[in-house]
Amino acid sequence: MNKESSTQVESRGSSTGSTPNLLVIGSVAFDDIETPFGKSKKTLGGSATYISLAASFFTKAGLVAVVGEDFKSGHCGVLQKRKVDLAGLEMKKGKTFAWGGKYHFDLNTRETLFTHLNVFETFSPVLSPAHRNSQYVFLGNTHPALQAKIINQLRKPKFVGLDTMNYWIEKTPKELGQVLKLVDALVINDSEARELSKERNLLKAARKIAGLMHKNKKRLLIIKRGEYGLLLFQHGKIFHLPGFPLEDVVDPTGAGDTFAGGFMGSLAKADNLSWNNVQKAAVSGSVMASFCVEKFGTKRLQEVSPKEISARHKDFKTLTHFDL
To answer: N or C: which end of the chain has fewer CB within 10 A?
Structure first.
C-alpha cells in the first residue's frame, strides 16, 4: 500500500514496536445498535476492539486492524487508556467499517440492518517483525483465507485462537477447513458448531470438529451457548460453565468477542496451557462477557474496574462451587 493511501495511526495511540503478550487481529467498527432497551449510534465496536479491551485487563494486548479517516483521536483514546498497543492500527482513505443491527425482545434474535465494509473490504495486513514474534494470537471473524495468510506470517506462536461464523462455514468451507488445521483453539457458538459438523448433538459436533483441527495436545474447542454459558472440550475432557445470571442485559453485541479477549488474555498472562488454567481462562472470559452486555457497545468495558472484575470472579466461584 502506498504512503498516500495508508498510514499507521502512530500519533494517536501507543506505538511501542515491542511484541505484545497477545496479538489481536480483526475489525474496528462503528455500530448502530437497537435493542428493546434503547438505541446507540456510531458506537465503537468491531471484533478487535472488544477482544483487545477485554484482554487488556489481564495482559499486554496489541491490535492489528484498519480504520478510515472518520476514526478520531477520541476513539484511539479508548484503547490507549487500556494501554492497548496500536502500532498495528492502520488508517486508510475512506470510512471505517460500519454495521447496524436490531435485537428482538429475547435478545437472542438479531436482524442485520446494514453492513458497510468500507476500508475493511481490502484489509490484508503485513505483520511487523515484532508482531510476527507474538506467542499468543487471536484472529477475529473474517475470511478464512485471510486468517491463514496472517497465521503463516507468524514465526513460532505458542497458541493461536480463531473465531468464525456461519457465513464462512457456508460460503468458504474449503478455506475454513484449511485454516482450522493451523490453529490451537476454535471459538464458535452452538448453531455454528451444528452447521460446521452437521450434527445436532453438541457432544457429537465437538468430536467431529476436533477432528478437523490441528492435531496437538493443546487443541481446544469452545462452544458458546449465549445466556446458557459454554462447553469447553480438549482431548476427551469436557468443562461446562453456566452463564453468569444478570438482571439487566442491555446489549449482547460483542459478548462473544469479549469472552475471547478475557479467555486469551488470561491464558497469555498465565503462560501455562494446563487444563486447570484453561478452565480458569474460560471463567475470566465469561466474567468479561457478563460486563460487556450491561451497556451498549464497549461502554461497560471502558469503565469496569479490576476490583469489579475480581469481585465477579468470586461470585462466579460461589455460584458454581459445590462439595461432593
So the answer is: C
Indicate left, alpha or beta for 210 from its phi (over 0: left) and psi (-120 to 50: alpha). alpha
Q: How far apart are CA 297 and CA 57, in angstroms?
A: 17
Residue 234: its H or E element: strand 230-234
How, if at all, do strands 230-234 and 237-241 pair? Answer: antiparallel
Please give the helix or strand (H or E) that residue 233 lies within, else none.
strand 230-234
Residue 94 pLDDT class (50, 70, 90 cuts): very high
DSSP 144-189: HHHHHHHHTT-SS-SEEEEE--HHHHHH-HHHHHHHHTT-SEEEEE
pLDDT band at 17 (very low <50, low <70, confident <90, very high): low
Rg (CA), the chain: 18
Going by the DSSP 8-state scheme, the letter that residue 228 receives in this structure is G
Structure confidence by residue, pLDDT tens digits, 245-265:
999 899 999 999 999 999 999
Quote the pTM value.
Answer: 0.94
**Residue 13 has what pLDDT?**
42
**What are the cell numbers at 122?**
481490502
Question: Which residue ranges form the domains of the chain, and what is each CATH number?
Answer: 6-320 (3.40.1190.20)
| Amino acid present at 242 | P
- CA 99, CA 42: separation in Å to the nearest integer? 9
Cell numbers 484498519: residue: 66
Contact of 266 with 285, CB cutoff 8 Å: yes
Q: Can you tell me the distance from the alpha carbon of 267 to that of 58, in angstroms, rounded to the nearest whole number?
A: 9
Residues in CB range of 300: below 8 A, 6 or more apart: 291, 292, 293, 294
